Amino acid sequence: MATATAGTSTATDTDQIKRLGHDYAHAVDTGDLDALVGLFAPDGLWDPSALGMDTAQGSDEIRAFFDANSKVFPASFHLTSNHVVDVDADTATGASYLHAFVLDAAGAKQEVLGRYVDEYVRTSDGWKFQRRALLPLLAPSDS
Fold first, then answer.
1. What is the chain's pLDDT, residue by residue, as a tens digit (143 residues)?
2. Are 99 and 84 in contact (CB under 8 A)?
3. Is the pTM of this model over 0.70?
4. What is the DSSP string of 19-32?
5. Which H helix or E strand runs over 141?
6. In sequence order, what E strands does 39-125 have?
7. Residue 14: which residues within 8 A CB-CB, separation 6 or more?
C-alpha cells in the first residue's frame, strides 16, 4: 500500500485512517491489548468520560483501562459505520458511529449506541489515534 510523504494527503490516508478504526474494533473484541495499545500514539488519549468513566492517556494507562474493562465486559461485538475523515497534512480528524453489544461478567447483554470522535496523527509507523472519545447517542441499555 502506498503511503503519503509527510505534509501531503491522499485518498490512501483516508483509507488507512478508516482501517485504524476497524483495527480498533477487532482489537477490543478479541482482547488483543498489544494491538490495541499500538493503535494509539505513545501519548494518545482514550476518552470515555461522557459515559462517566476516567480518561486514559499514554500506552500504560490505555492498556490498564482496557485490561480492567475486559474483566467487567469479557465479550464485546463492535460495528462501526459512516466514518468521515478530514486530513490536514500530518494530522486528521474524524468521526464514526458505533453500535456495540457487550456481555458483562454475569452474562447480561448490553447494547451501546454512540459516536467516536477522533483526532489522528501520522507517525513513522503510520496513522495513530491521538485522541479517541466515545460519546453516547442513547443511554446504554440491556437487550
1. 344 444 455 779 999 999 999 999 999 999 999 999 999 999 999 999 998 999 999 999 999 999 999 998 999 999 999 999 999 999 999 999 999 999 998 999 999 999 999 999 999 999 999 999 999 998 766 65
2. no
3. yes
4. HHHHHHHHHHHHT-
5. strand 126-142
6. 40-47, 56-57, 75-88, 91-103, 109-123
7. 85, 87
Instruction: Tell me how far apart the alpha carbons of residues 91 and 121 are, in angstroms, rounded to a whole number.
Output: 5
Q: In this structure, which amino acid lies at residue 29?
A: D
Selected from 3.40.50.1370, 3.10.450.50, 3.40.50.10490, 3.20.20.150, the CATH number assigned to the domain covering 11-142 reads: 3.10.450.50
Ranges of each domain in the chain: 11-142
Q: Grid coordinates representing 11?
A: 485518498
